Backbone:
């Protein structure tokens, strides 16, 4: 993934938009690489994100995935367009107790109004979750 293959205006838009999302700040999400139709977002594991058995709550991982996918779509739509999640299927592969999670979202298919993405979540290079999600352009 490279920011070199993306219009600088789209990169700035993605970065500005990311930093204006209160929920992303609340979770402690960090925007990583931004490419055309592809984005990486990081999340440092901390106690507030864990459920009572000491592992990261699935909802925190789902939020990481959904945010990464939304910003991947944002890199490929016009500045005045908006999208909304229509579907999100997650496969949790490993329990997480510590580390830094990275969600990398890639557009698999983009139609006139519907985007389909795949997302991989890793922890220290180990695959811990996968997802497929869809976004719809709002008219």
Residues:
């Amino acid at each position: 993934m490279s920011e070199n293959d993306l219009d600088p205006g789209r990169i700035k838009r993605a970065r500005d938009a990311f930093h204006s999302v209160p929920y992303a700040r609340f979770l402690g999400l960090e925007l990583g690489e931004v490419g055309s139709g592809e984005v990486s977002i990081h999340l440092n594991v901390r106690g507030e994100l864990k459920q009572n058995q000491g592992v990261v709550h699935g909802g925190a991982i789902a939020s990481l995935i959904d945010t990464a996918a939304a910003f991947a779509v944002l890199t490929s739509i016009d500045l005045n367009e908006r999208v909304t999640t229509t579907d999100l299927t997650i496969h949790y592969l490993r329990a997480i107790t510590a580390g830094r999670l990275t969600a990398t979202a890639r557009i698999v298919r983009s139609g006139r109004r519907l985007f389909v993405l795949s997302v991989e979540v890793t922890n220290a290079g180990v695959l811990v979750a996968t997802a497929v999600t869809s976004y719809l352009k709002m008219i």
Notes: Residues 58-74 form the longest helix (17 residues). The chain has a mean pLDDT of 93. Residues 3-138 form a domain with the Thiol Ester Dehydrase; Chain A fold (CATH 3.10.129.10). The chain has one domain: 3-138.
